[in-house]
């Protein structure tokens, strides 16, 4: 979605401004921009659920609104283009059962319309082309991927596959317009779908070399039927980051692009300070915050376990002496608990005598920094320890095939979320998800293809769920999803969209493309109060979903 327009807004039919001159132009531009933003948002929502009639109707309304405001603003060409699409769209609204091909064709035409606008250079009164983009949250408002394909219909077909993973994709069918689209709004990635030609590759090279960090440092991918050395070498020379041969596996392409897209919303290290000298600790905490770390203060050592449970620090900094007890005793206390055996503990103290340092290390501390600590030294010492801790925890808690939480990590997380929901009196939902007839996938296409289907679902779940939701691989082809602060009814809505999207993803195999589906069972804490009860209820609901025919979700 462009700018800051919201997804569900209705067309802006407000009367044109009569203030005259430049101000009038500005308000016309703004109105048109809003019309385009709203149409794009509605289109994105519809593409996420093709069968949803309400979303189709919303697209239709926004398109009519845009045609009208373009006409009243004197932008006749945009109005005419919008009206040309309005007819087939109205036919779709009247008869949503029309072939999927006509829906795709209409969606492609709408994308073209939006791309056409993206190519218009900003007019006076609009934001300057170089204005940095706002960092968008995960989801539909992230910067779009521009996908070039000279055939808009084929481009739209690929775009649909990518959208199932939650990306906003704009198809551009004229290569000359890619540059102006970037000027108007820098993308999160560029994809060129073409057969190798020197002139096209030269254009890609020019775009690749014009990239500048931070907001113009997007990855560039090429997808092509030709994967020979010459074509790949030309792409590498042009500055292309990744090269895929057709048929392209959407999950693999997204995986690669995501790894290349620099994460704008970093996950800062969580550092817990235990000190009874608030002013002194705050001084060091400020240094760490400036270095993009997250810090929390604890002044009462007696609350240490609550702080660990809730904040889950990736490193603890403490004074050698606090009024309540010595840091060395506190370290022994922390190390008594198996779960916290490996959290790094660093002492900060004026007391740099060797005997204290040895005592600290013997009690289970990892380092001893004598005050005053040089800020650069503090940052590098703490961040390298926190980083290693995070990496090791990742290895222990994550499944190697998917990178998701493994069986024991998901059980541990659910126990924590249930305890927290009890404290905060908010709901939490557990969903158990199982791929349907998965044995058949393995038997027909082989284990590696089966693994690939598992990875595709894992990626889709990660993409489509909120940042606070926790996804785990419970075993084999079974997944567990924890949705904090979400009642079962809301969880079913979200999961049903994912179920729908998954069932439309094409998987490639030597024997031919195929699709797969999953079934799910959900349960929330209002009816099942403990973690064990939730697992049992969600599992029973999953069994029911399988029994009732699969590719469905049941509540327990
Ligand atoms: N490729 C692959 N297959 C796995 C993995 N883990 C388990 N499986 C296979 O998943 C299949 C699960 O089959 P079943 O439990 O019979 O269930 P299903 O065929 O999915 O049928 P329903 O669940 O009843 O729809 C078995 O063939 C397992 O060997 C894995 O990591 N990779």
UniProtKB/TrEMBL annotation:
GO terms for biological process: cell adhesion involved in single-species biofilm formation; negative regulation of bacterial-type flagellum-dependent cell motility; phosphorelay signal transduction system. Residues 144-261, 270-386 form the Response regulatory domain. GO terms for molecular function: diguanylate cyclase activity. The modification 4-aspartylphosphate is found at residues 193, 319. InterPro entries: CheY-like_superfamily, Diguanylate_Cyclase, GGDEF_dom, Nucleotide_cyclase, Rev_trsase/Diguanyl_cyclase, Sig_transdc_resp-reg_receiver. Residues 426-556 form the GGDEF domain. Its EC number is 2.7.7.65. Keywords: Phosphoprotein. It catalyses: 2 GTP = 3',3'-c-di-GMP + 2 diphosphate. It is an enzyme of class 2 (transferase). It comes from the Bacteria. GO terms for cellular component: plasma membrane. This is diguanylate cyclase. It comes from Noviherbaspirillum cavernae.
